[in-house]
UniProtKB/TrEMBL annotation:
PANTHER family: MULTIFUNCTIONAL PROTEIN ADE2, SI:DKEY-6E2.2. Pathway: Purine metabolism; IMP biosynthesis via de novo pathway; 5-amino-1-(5-phospho-D-ribosyl)imidazole-4-carboxamide from 5-amino-1-(5-phospho-D-ribosyl)imidazole-4-carboxylate: step 1/2. The keyword Ligase applies. This is Phosphoribosylaminoimidazole-succinocarboxamide synthase. Coiled coil: none annotated. Its EC number is 6.3.2.6. The lineage of its organism: Archaea, Methanobacteriati, Methanobacteriota, Thermococci, Thermococcales.
Length: 236
């Protein structure tokens, strides 16, 4: 079976309908034009994703997460992934501040859900439901993904608020399992979310690397400790 390798992860299929998702220490930004490697990043993203998947499962959201398979590996249910990313935004940041006449940091009156087509050659363009139908994704499937994404937002926004962190925005990916169910896949980590300290506004996510705002591993370790209550024991 074919091994899929992306910028930050490798997915290794197994024979029993499962897969190993291996998190790499590589970091990329701006369509891969900025690259670096950080020892311990893969461990942190794997452990943070595992922790947040458990939180979601405990609150009734079905995910592909099965268990931890090592320092930087998770065991997951194998899915047939949709070629879209679902982005939920709570606060103006990133590309949204270029598209709306609102200042960065403005809290939105309600979450915004956006769809993006996964294609590096096209720079992952934003699409709508009409585009999705052309790509073979039905409106009912999009509505289900959006519904799950908003439920994830509801759960995680409150979870982080209690820990002094603002969930600014995040990206989710979905797939179908062998039973035809739409399931949350991929990862939930500081690589795919924006987290700001609720008091200082300091970034605790990949923006630290994107915009040279400090030490990436220090930021990820602080996020890990805030959400788990434990000091990280990462493997370099």
């Amino acid at each position: 079976m074919e091994v899929y390798e992306g910028k930050a992860k490798k997915v290794i299929p197994l024979d029993d309908g499962k897969a190993i998702m291996e998190f790499k220490d590589d970091a990329t930004a701006f369509d891969g034009s900025k690259k670096a490697r950080f020892g311990g990043k893969g461990w942190l993203n794997a452990q943070i994703s595992a922790h947040l998947f458990r939180v979601l499962e405990e609150n009734g959201v079905k995910t592909h997460f099965i268990g931890v398979a090592g320092d930087n590996r998770l065991i997951v249910e194998r899915l047939r992934m949709y070629p879209v990313e679902v982005v939920v935004r709570n606060v103006v940041a990133g590309s949204l501040k270029k598209r709306l006449p609102l200042r960065e940091g403005t809290e939105l009156p309600e979450p915004i859900v956006e769809l993006y087509y996964k294609d590096d050659s096209l720079h992952d363009p934003m699409i709508n439901r009409y585009h999705a139908k052309i790509l073979g994704i039905s409106e009912s499937e999009i509505r289900e993904m959006e519904k799950i994404a908003l439920r994830v937002n509801e759960i995680l926004r409150e979870y982080f608020r209690k820990r002094g962190i603002t969930l600014i925005d995040f990206k989710l990916e979905f797939g179908k399992n062998e039973r035809g169910e739409i399931v949350l896949g991929d990862e939930i980590s500081p690589d795919t979310c924006r987290f700001w300290d609720a008091e200082t506004g300091e970034s605790l996510d990949k923006d630290v690397f994107r915009f040279d705002r400090g030490n990436l591993i220090d930021a990820y370790e602080r996020l890990y400790q805030r959400i788990t209550g434990e000091a990280p024991s990462r493997r370099l």
